[in-house]
Amino acid sequence: MVVKALLFSLAMLAGGVILSLVMAGIIKVIYMILHRQETPESGAE
Amino acid sequence: MFPFWQIFQGLYTLFTSEPKIVIGRVVLILLGFLVIYLGYKKILEALIMIPMGIGMIGVNAGVLMFDAANYGTIFVDPLVADPIELVNILQINFLQPIYTFTFSNGLIAVLVFMGIGAITDLDYLIAKPLPSMLLAIAAEFGTIFTFPIAIAAGLTPGEAASIAVVGGADGPLVLFTSLQLARHLFVPIAVVAYIYLSLCYAGYPYLIKLLIPKRLRGLPMDLASIPKVSSSEKFTFSIVATAVLSLLFPAAAPLYVAFFVGIAIKESNIRGHLEFLSGPLLYGATFFLGLVLGTLLSADIILDPKVLLLLGLGMLSLLLSGIGGLVGGLIGYKITKGKMNPLLGIAAVSCVPTCAKVAQKVAQEANRRCMILPFAMGPNVAGVITTSIIAGIYITAIPLITW
């Protein structure tokens, strides 16, 4: 059971990294979309 | 003859209980005094420790005789399961309604999380999500690797996961996970968690000084490098994150809703709601959390032989998470070619905002002009998200796996 638990932990670490990257990607996309809308183009000014 | 000495039942029950219980009661009363003193001196978190210490003293001193053979208190009985007995006890024990209706269903954890969301600053996380999230996952080392160690020590998977989550340094998440996976150990795990979370503030500076040289601790970061993040960006993130995380881990959805509704209220600037969440709700829930936890620390409950093991594993989990975070911080320092203060790693251990404050405090000790708090809040909040992801995985996966 200990080996199984260790494998589970390793899988969770990998899953955690992937999900963290996904969350970081989501945050980045939101930031880019909204930031572009709210920041006026320098040429437009 | 009238038994005068039975009038003072706290003393009478102390002298007529079995020695194990007597020693347990005396030790817990003394521990209550110590906890109050350390809270008063701000060495431990006063918000939790002072009501908790008073609860500990009251419940262990105030044991009375129900009849010649039965001793007990009129505070709270966490072990009652029979519905008829529960209805009777609800009318006797003064803290029973709070325990039954807010602790045993996780509501208190959710209320605290709403308040935490309402005081959380998301700027650096939104502006620099990748370093924040990666530091946060490094600081989950204890949450992830205490699990197999706890299994090796003889705990069941549910118990092991519940104590491992202590390494996420997030009290509400520990309460929530142990209620879902190891309800029978909820009381000792919750108590272990909150005692250790208070110790973070006192203990982590020593760990930092042990692992990070002074030159790096005082490394200044450029505040002008944090891009401006608008309220609408933070508001949108809170809504999307609620949907995504709830879709992935429905078992932890109440916590996501609570945390992100707090953020959404803050960023939408609904002043009345914000004042309620960050004031009466957060402080009220924290007060009753401390008081009820203290009254749960009665000798008969805490003398469970597993408690000693839980104490060791809880400390190991927080220690591993602290080391993981700091190693992550050192890697970040190398990758950014010396632009990132490695203390951001300790902030990633979550415990909003305590660990971010610890990072700032230690950085300022090394360099008076060093201001890293706005940066530290990024990994700090990311730590809440990663811990809730790990807790969600534990709650969802453990019952599905044949161990």
Would you mind describing this structure in some detail?
The complex is a heterodimer of chains A (45) and B (403). Chain A has 45 residues and is mainly α. Chain A has one helix at residues 2-38. The longest helix of chain A is centred in the middle third of the chain and has 37 residues, at 2-38. The radius of gyration of chain A is 19 Å and the shape is rod-shaped. The termini of chain A are far apart. With 403 residues, chain B is mainly α. In chain B, strand 1 and strand 2 form a beta hairpin. In chain B, helix 3 (46-61) packs parallel to helix 16, helix 11 (171-181) packs parallel to helix 21 and helix 12 (186-211) packs parallel to helix 20 (354-366). Chain B is globular. The termini of chain B are far apart. Chains A and B meet through helix 1 of A and helix 7, helix 8, helix 9, helix 14 and helix 21 of B.
